[in-house]
């Protein structure tokens, strides 16, 4: 199970509650499991000391206390105690051990139509109680809804406010969770109870389909779609879809009230029974309750990390495994790692410890197999070189799972590796979509996932995910720097092909912004997803007098853009999907510049790797092979730093997030101060140009460009 042990600096008692364990930590403070003298369990939220002295923050907490105390509903967690004036203010609510709706849907899939309707009716009644108290919750989302056998519980009034209370909300500040907030929240406008109804509509659509109705990805993209796009209700039964469509109306006045929503969701609400939920979710509630309640009467605060336990036979048993302390890590180096791993096999065949494994999830047989196979081969070379060491403390194996580049295949592949008792960490997957589909599986298992190719803003509240590359918009910024440093030709035609999803959106938004910061004009255009004829828009852009051109879209669209712009003489740039031999082989692509996070196999710093790769596989490495090699060596470096035997996968997460490792392609240092997934603090972006039917490595992209005009 997750390590919930109290830490040395945690308090032992708060407001008459003996603290037993940590339940979670957020921006405001820490939530503990507490027990009163009578034996009642409570969730006790304590403000962090550094915020307690902030009068504005303390005032916000005081309002939270008053808000929560005014709400009475069986479907809203009950406030059992509070002290807003204490040195460290605290709030206690009845403890609910069940899983969040988000966890249940990730693990077991969408709820059946009846379960969704029953859920909606009870949550509508919860919101009615919230609104009757004169409040707007502002953060109705799957993570704030706990499931119990007798019904859901709405939790967390951390950002609940009176509709007229704007003292703590700055102009333009978006409060809530993108993907589950209303259009007026997305536009930082005035809120009303109707905003919560919209959010509940998003929650119910998620419960019915397993996906948010406005998709996933970058925050800006989610906000834009929430304001402008229609919700995706595909998969919701027709009767329920009509009700949810009303909840998701852009105009707040067109939405039903909670009472009207309760009436519209025609379903009997079972009294005190669990027959409204699928059997596997009921079992999950029982398992989570047993996990949380199987705590000792009084758990001592730990001053030292416990001993690393023996691994369980299956990751399905991770809930029963004891937690282990984090290892103290040394700084690794790419050159040193290369020298250390080049030894020959000693022939003894006797490892000093049982074999351990690293997993690679990739597209090995689908549309992106070229990149997926290259990344796998790079990782395999690193593992083979490690196993050839005479002083290796263990033998390392590589386990691969082919997701075929599909989201459905990604979930299956992730489960395959997550259930493999030997796999300690995973590299993958090849694309944004497959990585996002796989993430919930790895996160539930607390199995570290290191991605070298997914650059989208993936799930933000993940625990086990590390991105070993910059975001797409950071790469796009470097593309604009390359434009400014080499030609600065303007006006610049920027074409967003929505077939490329959020990658294209992030690229064009950033490139357009940076180019304009240099005082140069842009000519932005957008084509809908599925567009196969780019000629009309390309003709219009040329007629407008553009002097440079940027395309962001999928590989097949980049090929069409290259052919359509064959007679255009200005500089032409493409986003990362064009980093492919098929694009380079297109005669019309000659001269195009591609800026990407993958280094070229001809770069000087990977020359030794490229030679070893050619010796091993009989051909030059492809794009992403060096990144796979770096990722595997980073994981090997962390495993070598582990003391006390084979670590549990979850105990590698914190050391990986704190690592400092110099690879061949980049330095791996993660900025843990960022919200959500730790970000690579040293972005690696590279420039390639199509010449003579091949993508030639130009060098690192500029870290900065000439000072913008007038700055």
From TrEMBL:
Pfam families: Peripla_BP_6, Pkinase. ATP binds at residue 45. InterPro entries: Kinase-like_dom_sf, Leu-bd, Peripla_BP_I, Prot_kinase_dom, Protein_kinase_ATP_BS, Ser/Thr_kinase_AS. It comes from the Bacteria. Keywords: ATP-binding, Kinase, Nucleotide-binding, Signal, Transferase. The keyword Metal-binding does not apply. One of its GO terms (molecular function) is kinase activity. Belongs to the leucine-binding protein family. This is Bifunctional serine/threonine-protein kinase/ABC transporter substrate-binding protein. It comes from Streptomyces camelliae.
């Amino acid at each position: 199970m997750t390590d919930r042990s109290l830490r040395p600096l945690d308090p032992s008692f708060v407001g008459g509650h003996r603290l037993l364990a940590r339940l979670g930590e957020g921006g405001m403070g820490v939530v503990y499991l507490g027990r009163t003298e009578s034996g009642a369990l409570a969730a006790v939220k304590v403000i962090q000391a550094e915020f307690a002295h902030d009068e504005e923050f303390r005032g916000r907490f005081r309002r939270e206390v008053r808000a929560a105390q005014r709400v009475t509903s069986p479907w809203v967690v009950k406030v059992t105690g509070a002290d807003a004036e204490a040195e460290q203010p605290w709030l206690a609510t009845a403890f609910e051990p069940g899983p969040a709706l988000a966890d249940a849907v990730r693990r077991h899939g969408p709820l059946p139509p009846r379960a969704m309707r029953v859920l909606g009716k009870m949550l509508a009644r919860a919101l009615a109680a919230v609104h009757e108290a004169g409040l707007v919750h502002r953060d109705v989302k799957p993570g704030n809804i706990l499931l119990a056998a007798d019904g859901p519980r709405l939790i967390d009034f951390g950002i609940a406010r009176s509709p007229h209370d704007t003292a703590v909300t700055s102009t333009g500040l978006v409060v809530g969770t993108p993907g589950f907030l209303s259009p007026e929240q997305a536009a930082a406008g005035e809120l009303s109870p109707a905003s919560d109804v919209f959010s509940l509509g998003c929650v119910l659509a998620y419960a019915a389909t397993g996906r948010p109705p406005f998709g996933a990805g970058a925050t800006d993209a989610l906000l834009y779609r929430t304001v402008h796009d229609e919700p995706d209700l595909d998969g919701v039964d027709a009767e329920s879809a009509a009700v949810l469509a009303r909840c998701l109306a852009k105009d707040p006045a067109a939405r039903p009230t909670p009472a009207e929503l309760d009436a519209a969701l025609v379903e009997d609400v079972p009294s005190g029974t669990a027959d409204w939920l699928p059997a596997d979710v009921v079992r999950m509630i029982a398992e989570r309750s047993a996990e949380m309640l199987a705590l000792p009467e009084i758990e001592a605060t730990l001053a030292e990390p416990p001993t690393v336990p023996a691994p369980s036979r299956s990751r399905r048993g991770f809930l029963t495994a004891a937690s282990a302390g984090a290892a103290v890590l040394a700084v690794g180096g790419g050159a040193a790692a290369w020298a250390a791993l080049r030894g020959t096999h000693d022939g003894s065949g006797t490892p000093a410890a049982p074999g351990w494994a690293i997993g690679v999830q990739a597209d090995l047989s689908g549309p992106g197999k070229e990149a997926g196979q290259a990344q796998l081969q790079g990782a395999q070379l690193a593992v083979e070189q490690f196993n050839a060491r005479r002083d290796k403390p263990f033998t390392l194996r590589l386990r691969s799972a082919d997701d075929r580049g599909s989201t459905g295949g990604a979930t299956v592949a992730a489960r395959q590796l997550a259930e493999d008792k030997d796999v300690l960490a995973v590299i993958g997957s090849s694309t944004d979509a497959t990585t996002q589909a796989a993430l919930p599986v790895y996160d539930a298992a607390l199995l570290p996932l290191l991605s070298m190719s997914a650059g989208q803003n993936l799930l933000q509240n993940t625990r086990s995910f590390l991105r070993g590359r910059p975001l797409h918009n950071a790469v796009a910024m470097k593309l604009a720097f390359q434009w400014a440093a080499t030609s600065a030709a303007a006006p610049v035609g920027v074409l967003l092909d929505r077939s490329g999803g959020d990658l294209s959106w992030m690229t064009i938004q950033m490139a357009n912004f940076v180019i304009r910061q240099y005082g140069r004009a842009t000519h932005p255009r957008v084509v809908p997803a599925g567009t196969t004829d780019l000629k009309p828009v390309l003709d219009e852009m040329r007629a407008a007098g553009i002097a440079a051109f940027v395309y962001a879209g999928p590989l097949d669209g980049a090929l069409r853009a290259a052919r359509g712009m064959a007679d255009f003489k200005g500089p032409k740039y493409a986003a990362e999907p064009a980093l492919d031999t098929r694009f380079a082989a297109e005669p019309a692509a000659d001269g195009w510049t591609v800026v990407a996070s993958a280094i070229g196999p001809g770069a000087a710093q990977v020359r030794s790797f490229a030679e070893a790769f050619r010796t091993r596989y009989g051909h030059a490495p492809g794009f992403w092979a060096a990144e796979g090699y770096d990722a595997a060596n980073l994981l090997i470096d962390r495993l070598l730093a582990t003391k006390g035997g084979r670590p549990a996968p979850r105990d590698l997460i914190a050391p990986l997030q704190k690592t400092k490792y110099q690879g061949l392609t980049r330095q791996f240092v993660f900025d843990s101060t960022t919200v959500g997934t730790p970000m690579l603090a040293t972005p690696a972006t590279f420039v390639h140009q199509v010449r003579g039917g091949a993508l030639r490595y130009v060098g690192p992209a500029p870290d900065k460009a000439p000072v913008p005009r007038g700055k």
